[in-house]
């Protein structure tokens, strides 16, 4: 064995142990019989998993979070894909300004975003909290949508679609027939990244929660304010497995990892 | 490159107008409070006041240092991991990439709690250290700057790795062998070939990691035991406890400027290499 | 994902959005309340659902911690969203100073006379009514240490096994206030106790922000003692360690939660009806039996086993050394400043 052939497995082992270790603790705790997180877990039981389903507020906020993550990410892609196409294929006047404006949501602290939206959108325009959350989550996901989709557009040679246009296809037709099939993996990874970002979003949603409207992560934090029992771990694991399921399906049908 | 300006604007403007209207304008209004004199007019006195306080200076420097350390560490580890992953065969590559992305899907709060179990006095790390005879008494890792560093690194490393994987995959396959044939050592290969060709990934990943580290609130609060003040902690105190939105907007603006500066700096680092290469 | 599939998702999301908006409009008589996130499933069963039946109205519940909800009330001042809120005593004074709340018309509360005297008008301004108390003292491992005074926590042999509440938490200032009493330097600026804690900063395990963390730390034997509110006591008793509730010679501190009515609310009478229901003997007894809220209604009778887990009885309530709301409000910014300098550095 040479040093180089050892480099790959050792690096991967260490990095993955570091990244996945905490996750394993959480999964183990979800099936524990004890009252706290512990490793090794104290006994085996499904009571914490069962408890998650009995907490009523989790169900409502789960629905809200799912709606925001799917709806917000889809809306961000509808805005983001044309913008990415313009940035990647056109001589766009003020391209840098457009790029900066759409990526801005990443660098502003979430708590400030939530507060700004509450004070200058929700209150003056009497916008409902649900709609405000939807707008905020769309804006938050937009930078990821534009970045990832732009990256996969940049990797796609533009002469194919130019050829299609020369051969008489309309620009729009060329986009749907030639470009879309080739960047759908990029779109999928943008969707997954956006979904995850939106689904775990806490600081923005903290101020944009209203009577009867709450997102799941905010609900979890509120629950943990007083109690931290393994039911929070159980909920986290269930959500993680749900996400893994989504990624697995995406990978199976779209080859997601090729584009991440 | 298509030349039609009207088409280009029609495609790009909806996204830009949306981001400006629901995001940029409200945030700018909020931030402008920090530059306003109550009686009318503009001033930067809130900022000079902020930086004239020695506590704030220390917190600013600590936030900057921790953000930079997490970014550098994730770049170093990220390149090693991304290299290793890219060199795998396609099937394994997908699975390993999946494992790297996995932590992103777990609530950051739950992950932070898991570190309490791992890093505690009776935690796995201390048990292993004592069993291996590295230390005799348990180390106090939890509730320190080190714990914050570990927590933030785990939180944001996946973003760096996936940015670098796509950058490395887009690199011409023969670039490294060619450089090796020309007699470059591994360090030179990295510095003169890999870095310039993957700068996009490094800039994106680095900005995400640095910004994420600056604006994380829960990780410093829980893993740092609130012994280590960060700018985001001060920001939260101002918003949620003191209801002082002007002071909060001052801190928020400083954080935003830091993120922008990091982004520009990363671009500079990567492009400087590029220029050298084209001159050579 | 194909465009068609994406269109479907968006249509579905749009429909879901409209449904949510529509559902909110369809209800005629709604009462919007703003409460702590604690034990919402039990509250729903004991308070909200029965009340909806009585009033024939719909209850909409907002949850969160006291300061965050107050910040939202402030932002919505011109067009209030919530009709009544339960917040801490000090936040009630802050809300009153900010002009967010109205006087509570206690003549409309049939159960008002049953309240402990200390709960009737906690801030002496007629703007709030207390509904529950909690004691704050020290939970500690009786096999490892002996706590007779708040100052004992800082003893060299104990300090490295103690979690202390952060100044920004509800337990922080009361605990510092008691430490000040123990040090015989109890000024309103809490300077002496903050300095004392700051001097032990390196030893003290953590300055906790979420009390939920403490059970975990106690179980891992990371800590042996922490000042806590009585409402978080129950989980500690299940850990299998000998954990005791200290009765320090300076006494116990604590807090009172109060109900307030929002200024400009369109459902004033309904809000009062709800408050009255919440302080009724029946509801207060049920909440106490579930170990959720200690009663403020003197007609509530509890078994010893239940009472032992709560802050029960008018004498106990009266004996708690509470920080006056005005002192807390006027000094809060200063406490944080001193804390950041002495402890956060």
Q: Which features does this protein show?
A:
heterotrimer; A: 260 residues; mainly alpha; MetI-like fold; 78% helix; globular; B: 280 residues; 2 domains
Describe this structure in words.
The complex is a heterotrimer of chains A (260), B (280) and C (345). With 260 residues, chain A is mainly α. Chain A has helices at residues 3-30, 47-54, 56-89, 95-107, 110-125, 129-155, 159-166, 171-199, 203-207, 216-226, 230-254. In chain A, helix 1 (3-30) packs across helix 11 (230-254), helix 4 (95-107) crosses helix 6 and helix 7 (159-166) packs antiparallel against helix 8. The model of chain A has no long low-confidence stretch (mean pLDDT 84). Chain B is an all-alpha fold and 280 residues long. Chain B has helices spanning 5-32, 45-52, 54-86, 90-101, 108-119, 124-131, 145-169, 175-181, 186-197, 199-215, 218-223, 231-241, 245-279. With 345 residues, chain C is α/β, with parallel strands linked by helices. In chain C, the strands form two sheets. In chain C, strands 1, 2, 3, 4, 5, 8, 9 and 10 form an eight-stranded mixed sheet that branches. In chain C, helix 4 packs across helix 15, helix 7 (172-182) crosses helix 8 and helix 8 runs parallel beside helix 15. Chain C is globular and about 60 Å long. The B-C interface holds B 55, 58-59, 113, 116-117, 120-123, 142-143, 221-222, 225-229, 233-234, 237, 239-244 and C 67-68, 70-71, 74, 166, 168, 201, 205-210, 213, 216-217, 220-222, 332-333, 336, 340-341, 343-345.
The fraction of residues assigned to DSSP E strands of chain B is under 5%
Q: Which CATH top level class of the largest domain in chain B fits? A: Mainly Alpha
Largest sheet of chain A: none
Coarse morphology of chain B: globular
Number of strands of chain B: 0
Shape of chain A: globular
**What is the CATH domain class of the largest domain in chain A?**
Mainly Alpha
Domain count of chain B: the total is: 2
Number of helices of chain B: 13
Helix proportion range of chain B: over 70%
Poorly predicted regions of chain A are: none
Q: Uncertain segments of chain B of ≥5 residues (pLDDT<50)?
A: none
CATH architecture of the largest domain in chain B: Orthogonal Bundle
Number of domains of chain A: 2
């Amino acid at each position: 064995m040479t040093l180089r052939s050892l480099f790959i497995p050792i690096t991967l082992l260490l990095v993955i142990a570091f990244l996945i270790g905490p996750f394993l603790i959480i999964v183990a705790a979800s099936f524990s019989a004890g009252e706290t997180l512990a490793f090794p877990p104290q006994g085996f039981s499904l009571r914490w998993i069962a408890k998650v389903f009995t907490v009523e507020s989790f169900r409502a906020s789960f629905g809200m979070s799912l709606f925001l993550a799917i709806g917000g990410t889809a809306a961000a892609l509808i805005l983001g894909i044309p913008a990415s196409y313009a940035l990647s294929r056109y001589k766009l006047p003020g391209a840098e300004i457009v790029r900066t404006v759409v990526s801005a949501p990443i660098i502003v602290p979430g708590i400030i975003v939530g507060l700004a939206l509450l004070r200058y959108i929700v209150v003056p325009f009497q916008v409902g909290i649900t709609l405000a959350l939807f707008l905020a989550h769309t804006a938050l996901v937009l930078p990821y949508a534009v970045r990832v989709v732009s990256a996969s557009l940049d990797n796609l040679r533009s002469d194919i679609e130019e050829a299609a246009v020369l051969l008489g296809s309309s620009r729009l037709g060329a986009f749907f027939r030639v470009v879309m099939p080739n960047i759908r993996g990029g779109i999928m990874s943008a969707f997954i990244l956006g979904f995850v970002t939106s689904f775990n979003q806490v600081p923005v949603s903290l101020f944009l929660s209203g009577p009867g409207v709450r997102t799941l992560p905010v609900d979890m934090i509120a629950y943990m304010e007083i109690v931290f029992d393994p039911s929070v771990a159980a909920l986290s694991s269930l959500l993680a497995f749900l996400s893994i399921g989504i990624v697995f399906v995406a990978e199976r049908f779209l080859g997601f990892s090729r584009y991440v | 490159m298509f030349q039609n300006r009207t088409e280009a604007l029609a495609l790009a403007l909806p996204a830009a107008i949306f981001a400006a209207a629901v995001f940029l304008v409200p945030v700018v209004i909020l931030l402008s409070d920090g530059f306003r004199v109550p009686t009318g007019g503009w001033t930067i006195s809130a900022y000079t006041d902020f930086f004239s306080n020695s506590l704030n200076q220390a917190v600013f420097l600590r936030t900057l240092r921790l953000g930079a350390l997490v970014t550098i560490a994730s770049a170093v580890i990220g390149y090693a991991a991304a290299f290793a992953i890219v060199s795998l065969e396609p099937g394994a590559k997908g699975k390993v990439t999946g494992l790297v992305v996995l932590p992103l899907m777990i609530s950051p709060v739950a992950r932070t709690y898991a570190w309490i179990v791992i890093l505690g006095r009776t935690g796995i790390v201390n048990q292993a250290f004592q069993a291996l005879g590295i230390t005799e008494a348990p180390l106090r890792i939890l509730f320190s700057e080190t714990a914050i560093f570990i927590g933030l690194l785990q939180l944001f490393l996946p973003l760096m790795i996936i940015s670098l994987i796509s950058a490395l995959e887009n690199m011409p396959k023969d670039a490294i062998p060619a450089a090796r044939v020309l007699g470059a050592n591994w360090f030179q290969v990295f510095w003169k070939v890999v870095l310039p060709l993957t700068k996009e990934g490094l800039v994106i990943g680095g900005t995400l990691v640095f910004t994420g580290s600056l604006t994380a609130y829960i990780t410093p609060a829980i893993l740092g035991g609130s012994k280590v003040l960060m700018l985001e902690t001060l920001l939260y105190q101002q918003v949620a406890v003191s209801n002082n939105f002007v002071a909060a907007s001052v801190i928020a603006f400083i954080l935003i400027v830091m993120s922008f500066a990091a982004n520009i700096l990363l671009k500079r680092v990567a492009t400087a290499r590029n220029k050298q290469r084209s001159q050579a | 994902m194909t465009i068609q599939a994406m269109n479907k998702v968006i249509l579905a999301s749009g429909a879901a959005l409209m449904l949510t908006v529509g559902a909110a409009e369809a209800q005629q008589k709604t009462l919007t309340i703003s409460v702590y996130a604690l034990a919402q499933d039990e509250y729903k069963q004991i308070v909200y659902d029965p009340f909806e039946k009585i009033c024939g109205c719909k209850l909409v519940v907002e949850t969160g911690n006291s300061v965050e909800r107050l910040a939202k009330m402030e932002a919505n001042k011109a067009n209030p969203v919530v009709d009544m809120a339960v917040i801490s005593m000090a936040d009630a004074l802050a809300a009153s100073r900010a002009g967010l709340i109205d006087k509570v018309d206690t003549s409309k509360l049939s159960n008002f006379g049953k309240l402990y005297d200390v709960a009737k008008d906690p801030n002496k301004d007629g703007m709030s009514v207390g509904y529950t108390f909690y004691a704050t003292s020290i939970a500690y491992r009786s096999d490892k240490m002996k706590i007779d005074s708040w100052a004992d926590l800082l003893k060299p042999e104990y300090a490295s096994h103690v979690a202390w509440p952060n100044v920004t938490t509800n337990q922080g200032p009361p605990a510092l206030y008691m430490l000040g009493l123990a040090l015989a330097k109890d000024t309103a600026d809490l300077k002496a106790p903050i300095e004392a804690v700051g001097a032990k900063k390196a030893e003290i395990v953590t300055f906790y922000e979420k009390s939920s963390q403490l059970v975990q730390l106690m179980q891992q034997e990371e800590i042996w003692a922490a000042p806590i509110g009585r409402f978080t006591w129950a989980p500690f008793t299940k850990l299998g360690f000998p954990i005791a509730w200290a009765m320090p010679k300076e006494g116990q501190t604590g807090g009172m939660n109060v109900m307030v009515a929002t200024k400009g609310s369109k459902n004033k009478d309904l809000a009062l009806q709800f408050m009255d229901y919440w302080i009724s003997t029946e509801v207060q007894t049920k909440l106490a039996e579930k170990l959720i809220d200690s009663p403020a209604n003197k007609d509530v009778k509890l078994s010893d086993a239940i009472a032992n887990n709560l802050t029960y009885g008018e004498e106990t309530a009266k004996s708690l050394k509470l920080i006056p709301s005005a002192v807390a409000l006027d000094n809060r910014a200063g406490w944080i400043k001193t804390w950041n300098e002495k402890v956060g550095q």
